[in-house]
Write a structure and sequence with these properties.
The complex is a heterodimer of chains A (330) and B (483). Chain A is α/β, with parallel strands linked by helices and 330 residues long. Chain A has 14 helices and five strands. Chain A has a five-stranded parallel β-sheet with strand order 2-1-3-4-5, with helices on both faces. In chain A, strand 4, helix 11 and strand 5 form a beta-alpha-beta unit. Chain A is globular, with a radius of gyration of 21 Å. Chain B has 483 residues and is an all-alpha fold. Chain B is built from 19 helices and no strands. At the A-B interface, helix 1, helix 6, helix 8 and helix 9 of A face helix 19 of B.
Chain lengths: 330, 483
């Protein structure tokens, strides 16, 4: 009797401990990049028709609010900095627990990276620390990360516990992100000049590493399971021959999987002025992004059945966010 | 597997569940399996050395107890153990070049000393020889003490170790509190002070002498919190299983003399050298003859002091070497040897000079003096070379108020200093309670439940939030736009 009372008390203590631990974890986790992720979860369930997944090139190159303004499609940039294909797969898997898009646009710009996660740890934390589907998060941690790193991702407090001295009011008062995952780059980076790319012939291609190829296949299978169509894209960039060989190698894979592939390096119709419309060699600036968004929107409308939601119930919110966003880019 | 790792917490939790779920007679065997698993995490070759040490001392114990060439068996075992220790730890040092490239097994000095103490105690008839090899192996390999001690004696440890005690709430909670306090000392105090100490030691010339001296004091606090913290985790873990490990610390910085300090610091090591080196040396024929010779020539006092001084010199030379094959450790041992021999020789004079009435001020002076002497020794102990120790000492004594970096450049921020002030204050309070004979854990257990839980959670979260562990957080690396 006495023993069972003790174990009951211990269980209650353990529960209280776990509760406080969870609270401390959420309190101390770095929130500087959480606003974008949280804004995705704030979207009404099953309200987005198009999801863009991939790396920073997506965030800088595609403006979902302009797509809504011009074509009435509701979309979101579910992308992360330097995010490789395997990470994108898990980000999409998590996103599909909250949205049922008709189309998933997959950025293949990191296809030349044969790893399962980017080498920049803070970006991996940014992606995984705020992920809302616990099972997907655990699966991602145990699939992508080496054994010795898993604890700090399962319990981010292991990494962030020393942040207690840096907690500020702003940690809780951050303005919500209303740009649907997009990031605006104005002008040009002072760090590098952007010459037009020296393109290799389209038919010249290398071989894809196993990991990105497998995860592209998994993305297609996942979308098929969820009833979403897939489109592969490679956004404009200035990259050397090795990268271009990998971008071109996506072509036969896409063909085999029955997925259309738009490699913007060869899309002359877009008419991109690299010097004027790129921020740096990898990212479009707002001028380039506006141009690419318009082109891609037209392409999507032409090839997929995406409803026009400019008169939907949620339209005033999109219109308001568009007005704010337009003020930032124009 | 470090005590402060997450894997240790999981390992310990599994051990606990398994231990209390098994019938009493099987519990020691679970501890043996767990201990071997724990030790194997340090590498399988190390486990081989542990097995070999256990086999030799266990076999010698059996021979001694059965009267089969007891002298040879005993001497053979001691030579084997010390020979192995010498070969693995000191051969390259004394040879001045790399002769052996074998890795030193974790905890070698500790389990070798335990093995030697066991065969010696069997030889002296202090404890019976263990018949069961598995039980003996458990004594040597028991996971709370195998890596860093305490250097437990067979007779003292084994009654609890082999008893397979059942679950007892009070004992469990007392043990858990002690472990928790150990984590606090290690992660919050020791590892935080370690950052400052390492920064100052790296470039003592960059700091004013008084700051370097303060770093030496910090090192004194760091090493105490580190080692005593480890002991608290070890003893607390043992207590939960109903096993009483030997105490290794007794508020050593309250000592009033250096000999007293060594009776209160790393107690089991001091006791080992006393029982297995100092006294046996004094009882050897050579020492007795020397005593007789001195008594005839120089009188009783010399006959008493000189052999003792020689034995102490040997003890301190070995104590220094025991800590590692490094010249600074030898110098550190010699420094203590000198201090202790001097204090023994000067004791009659000092006793006459001491005030007759007990004076608080004088006691405080003695404590401060002892602490200063201990700190001076730490300069040698902490330094990797004599040159490094010299640089630290020169800075302290030749440029006490020179311009230099502030402590903010030593890797800790204001918040860290605030945590340190709070944690060291708490540490002092716990030490004072111990000096006054207050059993703090008993007081905590007597508190009403909400207060007890509050105190436990406050300590747990102090460790979690203020502890130095994990990969570390760098706000700059999270700056979003740095693709």
């Amino acid at each position: 009797m006495k023993k069972s009372r003790f174990f009951l008390r211990m269980t209650a203590f353990a529960l209280l401990f776990c509760l406080l631990l969870y609270g401390a974890d959420r309190l101390l986790v770095d929130r500087s990049a959480a606003a974008r992720t949280e804004s995705f979860y704030a979207e009404p369930k099953d309200s987005l028709d198009v999801l863009f997944v991939g790396s920073s090139r997506i965030m800088c190159g595609i403006y979902p609010l302009l797509l809504w303004e011009q074509y009435g499609m509701t979309s979101f940039d579910c992308a992360g900095s330097a995010q490789v294909i395997a990470q994108s797969y898990f980000q999409l898997k998590d996103a599909l627990n909250f949205q049922s898009p008709r189309l998933v646009v997959v950025d293949v710009s990191t296809v030349a990276n044969g790893n399962v996660y980017t080498g920049v740890e803070s970006f991996v934390h940014t992606q995984l620390d705020h992920m809302r589907s616990p099972l997907v998060r655990l699966e991602a941690i145990f699939t992508l990360l080496p054994r010795e790193k898993r604890l700090e991702y399962c319990l981010p407090l292991v990494k962030y516990h020393s942040r207690w001295s840096e907690i500020r009011r702003e940690d809780f008062d951050r303005a919500p992100d209303t740009s649907r995952g997009a990031v605006v780059y104005l002008g040009h980076s002072e760090k590098e000049d952007v010459p037009p790319p020296e393109l290799i012939p389209r038919a010249e291609m290398g071989s894809l590493a196993d990991i990105p190829r497998t995860y592209l296949e998994k993305i297609v299978a996942l979308c098929a399971e969820k009833g979403a169509e897939v489109l592969f894209v490679n956004l404009p960039c200035v990259r050397d021959r090795d990268f271009q060989l990998a971008y071109n190698a996506v072509e036969p894979l896409a063909e085999r999987l029955g997925v259309p592939y738009v490699n913007f390096l060869y899309e002359e119709e877009l008419g991109l002025d690299y010097e004027r419309e790129m921020f740096d060699t990898a990212h479009l600036n707002s001028l380039g992004a506006e141009k690419l968004t318009a082109w891609l929107g037209a392409y999507i409308c032409e090839n997929y059945e995406i409803p026009d939601r400019r008169n939907a119930e949620d339209a005033p919110r999109w219109a308001q966010d568009l007005a704010d966003f337009a003020g930032r880019i124009r | 597997m470090s005590f402060t790792s997450f894997s240790f917490l999981c390992f310990f939790a599994l051990c606990l569940v398994g231990f209390f779920a098994l019938p009493q007679r099987l519990r020691p065997w679970l501890l043996l399996a767990a201990s071997l698993g724990f030790y194997a995490a340090a590498g399988l070759p190390a486990l081989g050395w542990l097995f070999a040490t256990a086999a030799v001392s266990w076999g010698a114990g059996r021979c001694v107890s059965a009267g089969r060439h007891p002298g040879a068996a005993y001497a053979g075992a001691v030579v084997c153990h010390l020979g192995l220790l010498f070969a693995l730890k000191y051969l390259n040092f004394f040879a001045g070049r790399e002769i052996l490239t074998l890795a030193i097994p974790a905890g070698l000095s500790f389990f070798t000393f335990m093995a030697v103490s066991y065969v010696t105690d069997v030889r002296r008839g202090i404890c019976p020889a263990e018949k069961n090899f598995g039980r003996y192996l458990l004594y040597l390999s028991f996971f709370p003490h195998v890596l860093q001690g305490p250097i437990d004696r067979y007779a003292g440890l084994t009654p609890g170790l082999f008893a397979g005690a059942g679950f007892e709430e009070r004992r469990f909670l007392r043990g858990a509190w002690r472990m928790l306090w150990g984590f606090f000392e290690k992660l919050v105090i020791a590892d935080r002070l370690g950052i400052l100490v390492a920064a100052v030691w790296k470039e003592p010339e960059a700091y004013a002498g008084w700051r370097v001296a303060a770093a030496v004091v910090c090192y004194a606090l760091q090493i105490y919190a580190d080692f005593a913290g480890y002991m608290d985790v070890a003893l607390g873990a043992g207590e939960i299983f109903g096993i009483t490990l030997a105490e290794n610390f007794d508020t050593p910085y309250f000592s009033r003399s250096v000999p007293e300090f060594w009776r209160r610091w790393h107690i089991t090591l001091g006791a080992w050298f006393r029982d297995y080196l100092f006294y046996p040396l004094q009882r050897t024929g050579a020492f007795r003859r020397l005593g007789k010779f001195l008594k005839g020539k120089f009188g009783k006092q010399a006959a008493k002091n000189l052999p003792a001084a020689l034995a102490l010199a040997a003890v301190w030379l070995f104590t220094g070497l025991w800590h590692g094959a490094r010249l600074t450790y030898v110098a550190w041992g010699a420094y203590y040897g000198l201090l202790i021999i001097l204090s023994m020789l000067c004791e009659p004079l000092c006793a006459r000079l001491r005030p007759k009435k007990k004076s608080l001020l004088f006691e405080a002076f003695r404590m401060a003096r002892t602490f200063a002497a201990v700190c001076l020794g730490y300069v040698l102990f902490r330094s990797a070379s004599m040159g490094e120790a010299w640089r630290v000492l020169v800075r302290i004594f030749t440029a006490p108020f020179a311009a230099g970096k502030g402590f903010s450049a030593a890797g800790l921020g204001m918040a860290d200093y605030a945590v340190l002030a709070f944690a060291l204050g708490l540490r002092l309070l716990v030490s004072l309670c111990r000096v006054k004979g207050v059993d703090l854990r008993e007081k905590l257990l007597a508190l009403p439940l909400p207060l007890r839980w509050g105190a436990a959670l406050a300590l747990i979260f102090s460790v979690i939030l203020f502890g130095i562990y994990g990969p570390g957080y760098d706000a700059a690396s999270f700056i979003y736009f740095e693709f």
